[in-house]
Amino acid sequence: MFELMDGFLKNDPVSLQKDILHHVEYTVARSRFSFDDFEAYQALSHSVRDRLIERWHDTQQHFKKKDPKRLYFLSLEFLMGRSLSNSVINLGIKDQCAEALSQLGFEYEVLAEQEGDAALGNGGLARLSACQMDSLATLDFPAWGYGLRYQYGLFRQIIIDGFQHEQPDYWLNFGNPWEIERVHVSYPVKFYGTVKEEIVNGKTSKVWIPGETVEAVAYDNPIPGYGTRNTINLRLWAAKPSEGHDIESYNTGDYINNIVNRQKAEIISNVLYPDDRSYQGKELRLKQQYFFVSASLQDIIRRFKDVHGNFDEFPNKVALQLNDTHPSISVVELMRILLDEEHLGWKKAWNIVRQVFTFTTHTVLPQALEKVPVDLFESVLPRHLEIIYDINFAFMEELKKKIGQDYVRMSRMSIVEEGAVKNIRVANLSVVCSHTVNGVSRAHSELLKTRVFTDFYELWPAKFQYKTNGVTQRRWIVVSNPSLCALISKWLGTDSWIRNVDYLTRLKEHASNPDLQHEWRMVKKINKMRLAEYIETMSGVKVSLDAMFDVQVKRIHEYKRQLLNILGVIHRYDCIKNMEESDRRKVVPRVCIIGGKAPPGYEIAKKIIKLCHAVAETINNDEDVGDLLKLVFIPDYNVSVAELVIPGSDLSQHISTAGHEASGTGSMKFLMNGCLLLATPDGSTNEIIEEIGAENMFIFGAKINEVPALREQESTVKSPIQFARVVRMVKDGYFGYKDYFKSLCDSIENGKDFYLLGSDFTSYLEAQEAADVAYVDKEKWSKMSILCTAGSGRFSSDRTIEDYAEKTWGIQPCKLPS
Ligand code: 26V
């Protein structure tokens, strides 16, 4: 009866204020006459959450009634960041909240800062999932996200004496108002044990007798769309001891030890793996993957069976998206359920599996392609290993029919890797079992076809597609840059671009307008002031607002070449030091900002962080240089720090060795915020060039197809003299820590410079010089900056999601009537 009625709760400031006070008193349990900023944040969050829950219920009811084909987005990582600021924007109640709070003597912005980040992911892949959830909700798609509720998110980075140290991120310490614990939504997840045969209805059937059972409990995180009442669900699973677990042993008397053993079950969802470079065959990692996949599939099948009596309609009602290979065990798990629990025949089950899965890969690095040792598989998931062998057998037979007896090729394509250690190639499993394989940019897709999955592409060309990544303009403009948001809406005469980003292109018409340019610069200045204050608080360095803020923020990896950036800074410093006074006056002042976390076990990446601090120490304390050059490292880079840094940047660097960055999404956030890009023609940058024009960017370096030959010649071609000079400065101990930096310098020595820093150095310096020249011409720079924002529409995750919905998932919007 109530299913379509608008919420019970009203959104005017008076009603909101009443709710906030109610929550102060009864949820936070503080006196409504005396509470602090954090308690006010908690009460406000609960008031906002109430409104989310209403919409969430209505949305789920509506989906249930309409029974559309649903998308299930399976990902082991979601980097959601803060929820309050995003929710009030998407619910359209920010001003009302601010007013309600101001009458109580609180400032909305101050309360929003109280929230810690939900950092359940490493980097690009995880933040992309969060952007895509926002777009799925906004575009009214019937979608669910599924993942793991880690107790400890990505480690906190602290810097002591220039060195990175990792600290645990116990993000749930102060409670999490944005999740709803569903104690009644829980499923048993099995591990280990043995497989037996049984006769069911006259047919032999396999039965898996587990050695351990762990309970998965659901935590729901509502994801509101913008400008719609649709609010979808991100369901994260936490591991709890299973009720039926080892009941026998309670009778044996060791009560205390049994309780302690039960708690061990929780380890599965304890901690996020922080190294996104390479796979090690870790048992816990495999258990995490299977745990979340098994619970999600049980939940999905339960929902399906509520409405459908058999599985015929399953492919028409369910799309399962694999976010990289991490959830790929779900293809085997679905096979197992259909065969062993639903007792479908092999052919029918296989036919269903091949119609529902879609796979997106996010890497080009072969060492990031997951492999699981067969022994490990056999012990943790014995029945799954059998099914993998069966799938592989069927695939090999199919292959033989198509390509004949080419055993070399067959062994390359096999899901099982033979050798001293037998492995399961999870990427091959994902490709074989999915009906579509997506790359994350056009360039990435080409690399997939020509280097990573060549054999598979030749076999199934139609399977391979790409959807260039995008980011949500709600978080990356509206939430993080309110001044720019207001300015864009004013000049476009509408705020429709927040839902339909195509409108942004109309800014192009005004790009040369001096009034817009003036206002544009004012907005940038406000954001630079905020950033400068933050830099001073974090690092004690005072920076000039007249300087160009030149930023590189992202995970620290050799291929992303933060080292190239630092060597460029050393070169700039060296030039300034050796200049005549008259030339110094022509130098464009710069604040070079670097931020990012190094994977804890990645020694070279950690040395790069230390080098940045050592160089900063020298430069920032050199009175000779003053405001002409500063270098700062921003610690603990995360989503909320990004929200502050990106709007305040003038120039941003995306300088990976061509052919290594699958897409890159940071660049898109900078672009939306009118920040110019200094970049290599890698990943999605190639598409950004098409949209913005190379003349409005600073592009340099080798192209993707030039890199292999350059690598071949690398040991014979001498690196440029300026490069040799700056490397020597580090090597000779100009910045101290001579011995410590030796291996770092060795890694880019002639003959060992795998990421081609030396080869790209000259063109890097030229691009930097071109940026200096452009920056001096304020009108020109402002115009370029406006054109960046104007051209950023194609890089909205709304476009990506619409593309996926139509070409990969086959889903339609299912909008809640307003
Ligand atoms: C690998 C591993 C290995 C072991 C444990 C944890 C872990 C977590 C993640 C990964 C794969 C990381 C892949 C990734 O983040 N790729 C980035 O994806 C972005 C979104 O598509 C893309 O823009 C970046 O170019 C790509 O590097």
Can you walk through the features of this model?
47% of the residues lie in helices and 16% in strands. It is of the alpha/beta class. It has 3 domains: 9-66 and 83-116, no CATH class; 70-82 and 118-434, 3-Layer(aba) Sandwich (Rossmann fold), CATH 3.40.50.2000; 473-692 and 707-802, Rossmann fold. A 9-stranded mixed beta sheet has the order 7-10-11-4-1-12-13-17-18. A 6-stranded parallel beta sheet has the order 21-20-19-22-23-24, sandwiched between helices. Strands 14-16-15 form a 3-stranded antiparallel beta sheet. The longest helix is centred in the N-terminal third of the chain and has 30 residues, at 37-66. It binds ligand 26V. The site of ligand 26V has 21 residues, from α6.
What descriptors fit this protein?
16% strand, Rossmann fold, binds ligand 26V, 818 residues, disordered N terminus, nine-stranded mixed beta sheet, alpha/beta, six-stranded parallel beta sheet, single chain
Secondary structure elements and pairings:
Blueprint: H1 13-26, H2 37-66, E1 70-74, E2 78-81, H3 84-91, H4 94-103, H5 108-112, E3 118-120, H6 124-138, E4 143-148, E5 156-160, E6 163-167, E7 180-191, E8 194-200, E9 203-209, E10 212-224, E11 231-241, H7 255-263, H8 283-307, H9 314-317, E12 318-323, H10 329-341, H11 346-356, E13 357-360, E14 371-373, H12 374-380, H13 382-403, H14 407-413, E15 416-417, E16 423-425, H15 426-433, E17 436-439, H16 442-452, H17 454-459, E18 464-466, H18 473-479, H19 482-492, H20 514-539, E19 548-553, H21 562-577, H22 581-584, E20 590-595, H23 603-620, E21 629-634, H24 639-645, E22 651-654, H25 666-672, E23 676-679, H26 685-692, E24 698-699, H27 707-713, H28 721-731, H29 738-746, H30 757-776, H31 778-790, H32 797-809
Parallel strand pairs: 1-4, 1-12, 4-11, 12-13, 13-17, 17-18, 19-20, 19-22, 20-21, 22-23, 23-24
Antiparallel strand pairs: 2-3, 5-6, 7-10, 8-9, 10-11, 14-16, 15-16
Helix pairs in contact: 1-2, 1-4, 2-3, 3-18, 6-32, 8-10, 10-11, 10-13, 12-13, 19-20, 20-31, 21-23, 21-28, 23-29, 28-29
Bound molecules: ligand 26V.
